[in-house]
Write a structure and sequence with these properties.
Layout lengths: L1 H15 L3 E2 L3 E7 L2 H14 L3 E6 L1 H8 L12 E8 L1 H10 L9 E8 L2 E10 L7 H23 L1
Antiparallel strand pairs: 1-2, 2-6, 3-4, 4-5, 5-6
Length: about 160
């Protein structure tokens, strides 16, 4: 029975990987409780020795400001974004190109949709491409870090 549970967990983890990717974002999905997945995401970020600088309650902001701009469609069930940096990777990125400062901090968003609160999405803004080969290598490492954090979260 334990073996079946482990296999089911691995299968769900594989299903969670790479829900979609655009030119600007990478989105993963998993199933579960929003608060529990958020706790795992925070643990995964902090487990890499990274400090979360800020969290943005994007879903709450949209709900709060919607009526003021005449828009009341509920976009998210819950939505939050975590901002953080890696001292090593951020330094390498800005040494490769000081103008890359605009790519820091990195962020991972976690959200669900009102019609399906048990499907949890984790996404990040894809960094790159660039014509600067030294910067491109660093951006690849950052994208790998962000993907690794999300994979660790959904495979818990």
């Amino acid at each position: 029975m334990r073996c079946a549970s482990v296999l089911l967990g691995m299968l769900l983890g594989l299903l969670a990987l790479a829900a979609r990717a655009d030119d600007f974002s990478v989105v993963f999905k998993t199933h579960g409780n929003f608060t529990e997945v958020k706790t795992l995401l925070v643990a995964s970020i902090e487990g890499k020795g990274l400090k979360i600088n800020h969290s943005n309650l994007i879903g709450d902001m949209l709900e709060r400001t919607g009526p003021a701009v005449g828009r009341t469609t509920r976009v998210f069930g819950q939505a939050e974004q975590f901002e953080f940096c890696s001292a090593d990777l951020s330094r390498a990125m800005m040494e490769a190109d000081p103008h890359a400062i605009v790519m820091c901090p990195y962020s991972i968003a976690i959200y669900n949709l009102p019609q399906d609160p048990k499907t949890i999405y984790l996404a990040y803004r894809k960094l790159g491409p660039t014509k600067n080969p030294k910067l491109e290598k660093v951006l690849e490492r950052i994208n790998e870090l962000l993907t690794g954090i999300i994979k660790e979260t959904v495979e818990f």
